[in-house]
Design goal:
heterodimer; A: about 300 residues; mainly alpha; two-stranded antiparallel sheet; 11 helices; 2 strands; B: about 230 residues; alpha/beta; Rossmann fold; 6-stranded mixed β-sheet; 4-stranded antiparallel β-sheet; about 40% helix
């Protein structure tokens, strides 16, 4: 067995998995609180990438240095996408909160289609080149052929964001309110927690994380188009289900698990079947362990 | 302190409360007794804003509150121990208590109230790092009461605190309710366990099919022939 090849696949799986995890967090948090699969979440990621592209273009012509462009592109994209996430919830989901589960789901699919077509309209339907914003790190030079600077940055940034989010959820007042709302919305309300605010914050955080993923991956891959959110979104959703939807550590673990499975599957079996691995995993999990890796089977007490 | 005037509450098209009027004076323990499905919980939900009344008024210290959002009503000083306790099972005892004080920002006062509830229920202090879901039913009820007290309410609403508990635990819980009342908190107690409730209450209301059918001092209700037959099983 070729050890170097193994590591190459492992590291590329890690990069992929980090991005899946970042996006999966948005799915799982929203599901945890309002039991909705926000199908428009992948589009937020795509809009994040486009926002990064526009910001990078503007700052590039103004002669900003590369690291500054990267940081600003990510920050602006986070803020912009947070605004999108917030607005989408208010427009497409909040009015349907009393309407059962199917209506908001259909509304989410509609929102997803709307956002894709909106981007086609205001941008283009073609692939657009994305500038390489990630600087080369000198210390990675010896292994740059298997683990590039962009891989490294994606993994590190994702890890830092996920650690930060975990601490936020565990220790801050808002984090506790979010957990309480997820565990029992009615009781949270009786304690004076404003569910609308918690839901808004959930959408804002999930969208901002997806935006980071969008900018970083676009810079890594070198191009964007209106449809990238669809596949990434479905993969991240798969990751959330694998990990146990509603569970934050589950989303992170599920993302890495999916990324690594895809990478090894593509590397050792056939890269033609890359997507097949992901969705086969989804089917296998849905049949044999529908509650996911971290999720608990729901016990209805009587 | 709290007054309901002609409250009518609906679930969809089904009317659960018909013209309910009652009042609770400052410092009292008032109980609402009645059979399962009589509308007792709905009465509480109409007070706390979870299912606002379609007609009628809820006045707290003279001010109408039936149009306010639940979180605003909590902020006014009404907190609730709901039916079934509704502890957050995946959070520690400490976190459950902290959430009780969610709307408060007076750190010193919160710490003081934490000491107070740990003094009322020393077992909770021992279990403060344990997850809520791992507590026994009685401990969960103690936690639910403590969590409500952490909001430092002026009016405490209790929904069936005796439900599913062992008789000895019920005694203990009711003794604490009385103690909380003696330290100045007004209590509105909804119970199926009419005997226990009437023993600690000052006044009581009887509810049937969404209507108040009787109102008297707790002592008078305890000795009332009809109440004894219907609710005390004597």
């Amino acid at each position: 067995m070729d050890v170097q090849y193994f590591f190459e696949l492992f590291l590329s799986g890690l990069t992929r998995g980090s991005i899946y995890a970042l996006i999966a967090i948005g799915y799982t948090m929203v599901y945890g609180i309002i039991e909705l699969i926000n199908f428009a979440h992948g589009e937020i990621y795509m809009i994040g990438a486009f926002t990064g592209l526009i910001v990078a273009g503007i700052l590039g012509t103004m002669g900003f240095p590369l690291p500054a462009i990267l940081v600003l592109a990510v920050l602006v994209s986070m803020i912009y996408c947070a605004g999108y996430g917030y607005t989408i919830e208010k427009i497409a989901y909040k009015p349907l909160r009393q309407a059962g589960r199917l209506s908001p789901l259909i509304s989410a699919i509609g929102m997803s289609l709307f956002l894709q077509n909106y981007v086609i309209l205001v941008q283009t339907s073609d692939f657009v080149p994305f500038p390489s914003l990630i600087p080369e790190f000198a210390f990675l030079e010896p292994i740059a052929h298997i683990f590039a600077s962009s891989d490294f940055l994606i993994v590190v940034v994702s890890a830092v964001l996920m650690a930060g989010l975990t601490l936020f959820i565990k220790y801050t007042k808002m984090g506790k309110a979010m957990r309480a709302t997820a565990q029992n919305r009615k009781m949270a309300m009786l304690l004076g927690i404003d569910a609308d605010r918690v839901i808004s914050v959930t959408f804002i955080i999930g969208s901002a994380l997806a935006a980071v993923g969008g900018v970083l991956i676009a810079s890594h891959v070198g191009m964007v188009n209106f449809a990238i959110g669809f596949l990434a979104g479905i993969k991240a959703f798969t990751a959330a289900v694998l990990g146990g939807i509603g569970s934050l550590p589950g989303a992170m673990l599920g993302g890495l698990f999916l990324g690594l499975s895809e990478s090894f599957g593509a590397g050792y079996i056939s890269s033609d079947y890359e997507d097949v691995f992901a969705f086969s995993l989804l089917v296998i999990f849905l049949i044999f362990r529908p509650s996911g890796i971290m999720g608990k089977a729901k016990v209805e007490k009587v | 302190m709290l007054e309901l005037k002609g409250v009518c509450t609906f679930y969809g098209n089904i009317q659960a409360l018909h013209d309910v009027s009652l009042s609770i004076r400052k410092g009292e323990i008032v109980t609402l007794i009645g059979a399962n499905g009589a509308g007792k919980t709905t009465t509480l939900m109409s007070i706390c804003g979870a299912t606002p009344p379609r007609r009628g008024e809820v006045l707290f210290e003279g001010r109408p509150i039936h149009t306010l959002r639940p979180d605003r009503i909590v902020a006014l000083g009404i907190s609730q121990v709901p039916e079934g306790r509704l502890i957050f099972p995946e959070m520690t005892v400490m976190e459950n208590l902290e959430l009780g004080a969610f709307l408060r920002s007076d750190t010193a006062g919160i710490a003081q109230d934490l000491d107070y509830v740990f003094e009322l229920f020393p077992i909770l202090a021992e279990r403060r790092r344990q997850l809520g879901g791992t507590l026994s039913g009685g401990e969960q009820q103690m936690l639910a009461i403590s969590r409500a007290l952490m909001a430092r309410p002026r009016l405490l609403l209790l929904d069936e605190p005796s439900l599913g508990l062992a008789p000895i635990v019920i005694q203990q819980i009711f003794a604490i309710i009385r103690k909380v009342n003696e330290s100045g908190t007004t209590v509105f107690l909804v119970e199926q366990n009419a005997h226990q409730a009437l023993k600690i209450a000052h006044r009581g209301y009887v509810m049937e099919n969404g209507r108040i059918t009787m109102e008297d001092s707790a002592h008078a209700l305890l000795t009332n022939e009809e109440v004894r037959k219907a609710y005390l099983g004597i």
